[in-house]
Design a protein that fits this description.
The chain is of the alpha/beta class. It folds into 2 domains: about 240 residues, TIM Barrel, CATH 3.20.20.20; about 90 residues, 2-Layer Sandwich (Sulfite Reductase Hemoprotein, domain 1), CATH 3.30.413.10. The chain has 12 helices and 15 strands.
């Protein structure tokens, strides 16, 4: 069952759990405005729905208007320690800020940021990270355990609630998948704020995707999580593609889903190449269908009966089928073009 949350508005988006929003972060140097604007446009076109940008100093505030003038999706300012950067970002028209209230100074500074956000209808994402826990919490728990992360998050929440601020999103990130999953499960029982999911420092494209799919996917299947970011040491465009695939695999994102068999001794066609060709050819097609690429014409259509359309090959010929029912037989070299022809007519 999907967890019920307090709705939080970010720009024109409503974070309420009805839709899982995909986030990413700009990776260009903050001093290079043109490069950040270009990357922001590319990420929006790739399917990013909420975009974060680092604001390390006052000079970087100029990024906000430059980027917002060129994209339609909400922009989030990532701020550490300096409450003045948060106030400046709010004045510049940012849609959301990511900050830890406990790291920006005394209660008066927290009050200033909370009041400014409230006046401008700007929500705050509290971002707790296993690598930057408060010393007293680390001393108490001896390590960045799930209970330590949750206690830190709730402490930060209390600082904002003290000033009657409730437009809050929370993230608890760890590079350890088990810790990350357990932390969010504990947090989901303690509050009704929307949660932003991610495995931080997940690694390179290969391992980062695996860790993110396990961590993010497990929680989404539990009904936990309203926004996600797949953190990869790679081009952020690949984060968007990975996030889409994770959501698609659990039925929370549309588009073409390709299923294919792992091959066996009955396979008589170059299935690996064919499956990759099908995936590439259909990558830009806007249809919510499941496509099967099977290596055996004997039982392929039966095994892939749940697919909307598919192909199954053997001995130089390929069967084209819909919902398990065979339409016709074509030559192996014509399989891709004939499959595309059928899909375009659907």
């Amino acid at each position: 069952m999907k967890r019920q949350v307090i709705p939080v508005k970010v720009g024109d988006l409503q974070i309420d759990g009805k839709k899982i929003y995909i986030q990413s972060m700009l990776s260009r140097p903050a001093s290079n405005i043109d490069a950040n604007v270009l990357q922001a446009i590319e990420l929006e076109e790739a399917g990013c729905e909420i975009l974060r940008v680092a604001i390390p100093n006052m000079e970087a505030i100029s990024l906000i208007n430059a980027i917002k003038d060129r994209i339609r999706i909400p922009l989030v300012a990532d701020i550490h320690f300096d409450y003045r950067l948060a106030l400046a970002a709010i004045d510049a028209g940012i849609d959301k800020i990511r900050i830890n209230p406990g790291n920006i100074g005394d209660d008066d500074r927290v009050r200033q940021v909370a009041n400014a956000c409230k006046s401008a209808n700007v929500p705050i994402r509290i971002g707790v990270n296993a690598g930057s826990l408060e010393r007293e919490i680390l001393k108490k728990y001896k390590a960045p355990t799930s209970h330590a992360l949750v206690e830190s998050a709730m402490n930060h929440v209390s600082l904002l609630e003290r000033h009657d601020f409730h437009d809050i999103v929370i993230s608890i990130k760890s590079s350890n998948v088990n810790t990350m999953v357990e932390s969010y499960r504990l947090l989901a029982k303690k509050c009704d704020y929307p949660l932003h999911l991610g495995v931080t420092e997940a690694g390179t494209e290969r391992m980062g995707l695996i860790k993110s799919a396990i961590g993010i996917g497990s929680l989404l299947l539990d009904g936990i999580g309203e926004t996600i970011r797949v953190s990869l040491t790679a081009d952020p465009i690949k984060e968007i593609r990975a996030a889409k695939d994770i959501l698609r695999s659990i039925g929370r994102y549309g588009g073409i889903e390709i299923i294919s068999c792992p091959t066996c001794g009955r396979t008589n066609i170059d299935l690996i190449s064919l499956a990759n060709e099908v995936e590439n050819a259909l990558s830009g097609l806007d249809k919510d269908i499941k496509v099967a690429v099977m290596g055996c014409a004997v039982n392929g259509p039966g095994e892939a009966r749940e697919a909307d359309i598919g192909i199954a090959g053997g001995n130089g010929n390929v069967l084209i089928f819909k919902h398990g029912e065979i339409l016709r037989k074509v030559k192996e070299q014509d399989a891709l073009s004939e499959l595309i022809k059928e899909i375009e007519q659907m």
